[in-house]
């Protein structure tokens, strides 16, 4: 298990040059945009426009801050994502454009290469204390949006600041998350 602190994340330009992304974690380590198996990042979107295309990639998008945005993905009907809607999965190689609802947003972007692995994203609202069991034979990450404490059953505990993450690599473990009033935590599961 490894704690990833928000201040240590790598910043880099978007693939299409239209903004900046904050890379939380990538596998293999130091992989680029063309050779990752999985990648977890955050981005601030300040204007309407097209998404970068990633051939062979599946992605899930969640709104972390801001009023939200409406996505037009291929010929599907538009879908509006907000901080309250569930994480939304779609193919990253289908032409996609975004229109902001009311000003800039920050999103969470989880991407996996189809021939290498798959993923799932769950948004938890923690009130008081909640237990999460990580899956066997997977990589799990908990991304905290608020101050929280994470404790391993019978073991270590960590104080998590906003945007800090805990990465659990191929170890099933029970984690207790404790929040003062409430906290939003994103659980990301990556499977081969």
What do these coordinates show?
It is built from no helices and 17 strands. A hairpin with a 6-residue loop joins β2 (10-13) and β3. Strands 1, 12, 13, 14, 15, 16 and 17 form a seven-stranded antiparallel β-sheet that branches. The chain folds into two domains: 2-113, Jelly Rolls (Sandwich), CATH 2.60.120.10; 118-191, Sandwich (Jelly Rolls), CATH 2.60.120.10. With 192 residues, the protein is an all-beta fold. The two termini are 18 Å apart. The model has no long low-confidence stretch (mean pLDDT 93). The chain has strands at residues 2-4, 10-13, 20-27, 38-45, 49-50, 57-65, 69-73, 79-81, 88-91, 96-100, 105-113, 118-133, 138-144, 148-152, 157-160, 165-169, 174-191. InterPro entries: RmlC-like_jellyroll (IPR014710), RmlC_Cupin_sf (IPR011051), Uncharacterised_HutD/Ves (IPR010282). Keywords: Plasmid. This is HutD-family protein.
Mean pLDDT: 93
Q: What is the count of DSSP helices, taking H or I runs of 4+ residues?
A: 0
Count all strands and give the number: 17
Topology as H/E string?
Answer: EEEEEEEEEEEEEEEEE
**Alpha-carbon Rg, integer:** 16 Å
The name of the CATH architecture of the largest domain is Sandwich
**So, the CATH homologous superfamily of the largest domain?**
Jelly Rolls
Estimate the global geometry from the Cα principal axes. globular
Overall structural class, as computed from helix and strand content, comes to mainly beta
What is the multimeric organization of the chains shown? single chain
**Strand portion, in percent?**
over 45%
User: In CATH, what is the class of the largest domain?
Assistant: Mainly Beta
What's the helical proportion of residues?
under 10%
How would a textbook summarize the main sheet?
Answer: 7 strands, antiparallel
- Write down the CATH topology of the largest domain: Jelly Rolls
Which spans have pLDDT < 50 for at least 5 consecutive residues? none
Protein name: HutD-family protein
Pfam family, one: HutD
InterPro entries: RmlC-like_jellyroll (IPR014710), RmlC_Cupin_sf (IPR011051), Uncharacterised_HutD/Ves (IPR010282)
Keywords: Plasmid
């Amino acid at each position: 298990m490894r704690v990833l602190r928000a201040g240590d994340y790598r910043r880099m330009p978007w693939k299409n040059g239209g903004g900046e992304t904050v890379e939380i974690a990538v596998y293999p380590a130091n992989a680029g945009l063309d050779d990752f198996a999985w990648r977890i990042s955050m981005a601030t979107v300040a204007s309407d426009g097209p998404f970068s295309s990633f051939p062979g990639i599946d992605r899930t998008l969640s709104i972390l801050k801001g009023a939200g945005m409406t996505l037009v993905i291929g010929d599907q009907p538009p879908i509006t994502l907000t901080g309250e809607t569930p994480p939304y999965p779609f193919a990253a190689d289908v032409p996609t454009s975004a229109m902001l609802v009311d000003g800039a947003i920050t999103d969470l972007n989880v991407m996996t290469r189809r021939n290498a692995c798959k993923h799932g994203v769950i948004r938890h609202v923690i009130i008081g204390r909640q237990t999460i069991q990580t899956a066997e034979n997977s990589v799990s990450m908990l991304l905290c949006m608020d101050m929280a404490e994470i404790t391993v059953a019978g073991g270590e505990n960590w104080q998590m600041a906003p945007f800090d993450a805990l990465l659990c690599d191929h170890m099933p473990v029970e984690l207790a998350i404790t929040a003062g009033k409430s906290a939003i935590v994103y659980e990301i599961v990556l499977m081969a």
